[in-house]
Amino acid sequence: MKSGxxxxxxxxxxxQPLIDQRxxxxxxxxxxxxxxxxxxxxxxxxxxxxxxxxxxxxxYNYMGQTFDPQVLAAGHKALDEYGAGTTGSRVLNGTYQxxxxxxxxxxxxxxxxxxxxxxxxxQANLGIISTIAGKDDYVILDIDSHASIYDGCALGNAQIVAxxxxxxxxxxxxxxxxxxxxxxxxxxxxVYSMLGDTAPLKEMVAISKAAGAMVLVDEAHSMxxxxxxxxxxxxxxxxxxxVDFVIGTFSKSVGTVGGFCVSNHPKFEILRLxxxxxxxxxxxxxxxxxxxxxxxxxxxxxxxKRAHLWANSRRLHGGLKELGFTLGTETPxxxxxxxxxxxxxxxxxxxxxxxxxxxxxxxxxxPATPAxxxxxxxxxxxxxxxxxxxxxxxxxxxxxxxxxxx
Amino acid sequence: xxxxxxRKTRIHRLIGDFNKKGIEVGEDTRFAQDxxxxxxxxxxxxxxxxDEFDIIITMNxxxxxxxxxxxxxxxxxxxxxx
Lengths: 406, 82
What we know:
The complex is a heterodimer.
Chain A: H1 16-26, E1 38-43, E2 46-49, E3 52-56, H2 69-82, H3 97-110, E4 114-118, H4 121-132, E5 138-142, H5 147-155, E6 159-163, H6 168-177, E7 184-189, E8 191-192, E9 197-198, H7 201-210, E10 214-218, H8 233-236, E11 245-249, E12 259-263, H9 271-274, H10 276-279, H11 286-300, H12 303-323, E13 326-327, E14 336-341, H13 344-357, E15 359-360, E16 362-364, E17 374-379, H14 386-403
Parallel strand pairs in A: 3-15, 5-6, 5-7, 7-10, 10-11
Antiparallel strand pairs in A: 1-2, 2-3, 4-12, 8-9, 11-12, 13-14, 14-17, 16-17
Helix pairs in contact in A: 2-11, 3-11, 4-5, 6-7, 12-14, 13-14
Chain B: H1 3-18, H2 39-53, H3 59-62, H4 68-81
Helix pairs in contact in B: 1-2, 1-4
C-alpha cells in the first residue's frame, strides 16, 4: 500500500509466496485443511464436522480425558465456586487454591519437589528456556525441536547450538567443543511430534550430564502414556532422576489447556519471580486447573488405558504399513503415527478424501515438518475402540486408492 | 596455499554436496537467495561445516553469515578460538 508518495513496502509482502501457494491449492476445489470447524463434539473420538459423523484421529487427546465424569465434575464445581477466571497473574491476584492443588498433583505424578503451572505449554518452554539460559550460556537443542523451544531460545540471550535429530554422536561432539566452564542447557523431547519417534534419552542424558550440562526434556507427547507410570520417555528409559527439568502440557493427555515445568532443583521456586512468560500473563481459570489436577491424578492409575493405547498404536501402524503407506517410524514408538505423503498436493487431497470418509487427521506441511515432508499425522486415543481402529484402516484404504497414493 | 585458500577449498567441497542445482559458487554467493537453500538445508550444511573443522557455529553466529566469503572468514576466526 502506498500513501502520499511514500514507497515503503507493504509489510505483508514477505507472506506472498505462502498466500500464492495457499490460493493455488484452494483453487483446485479442496476444502481448506486449516479451517475445519467441529460443530459438535460427541466424545473424545467422535465429532460432527461439516454435518458428518467424523472419527477424530488428530486431537492429541491420547488418554481420552476430555469427557471423563470426574474431570468434568471438578471443573463444574470450580466454575461455580471460584468463577470464570482469575483476571490476574500468578504473582498477583491469580493464584487460587486450585493452582496450588494442580501443582501438588504434578509433584505427586512425577515424584518431584517443585512444579510450576503456566498458562500454556508453549509458554512453559518459552519461559523456562529464556529465563535459565543467560547471555554467556549455551542451549544445545535437537534440530527438530518444537517451535516453542526455538521461540524460547529466541526470547533469551543465550548462544544456541543445534545438532542433527536424535543423533547421539552429534550431540556429544558439540558438547565437547563448548567451553568447559560455560553454563549449558541441553533441550530434548521425549516424543517428537512430527514423526512420532522417541529420543534415545538414556544415552543423551548420560553424555549431557557427563559434560556438566543441565537437561530439560519436553514430554508433551508422552505424558500419561509412555513409561510404567506414564511419566514419559525419560521414565521409560530409566533416566528421569537425571533430568533437571521436565516440561509438559495439559492440552494433550491431561485433556485441557495449560503447561508446566517440574524439577528437583533446590532453587527452582525463584523462577516464579523472574520468568516473564509466567509473571506477565493471566493465570489459568479455576475450572481449568481443577480439571487438570483431577485428570493428572487419574492418569497415575491408568495402566489399562495405556495398554489399550499401545495395542491401538501397534495395530494402526501395522495395518497402514500393510496397506502400502510409508510411515514416519519403522515401528510404533508413540501414539503418533505419521503417514508420509509424496507431496503437498496429494497430501492435501488425501486429507480431504479422509474427511469425506469421515476421518479427521492432521495435515502437517513444511516448514513445520522435517526435511520438507508433507505428513498426515494420526494421533490415537486410548478411547478409540477396536472397531474404530478397523474403521480407520478401511477409510485409509478407500481414500488412498481414490487419491492414488497406495 | 594459504590457510584461507585451504579453508576455501574444503568449504567449496562441502557446498558441492548440498548444491543440488549445480549453481556456480563464488565468494559473494549467498546461501539462502543464490543457492536457494531452505532453513533446513542451511542447518544441515552448518552441521557439516562444524564437523569438518571441529568447531561450533552457534545459530546466533550463523544468522550473520550470508555469503560463502563470510563463512570462510568466520570459520578461520572460530578455528582460531578453539
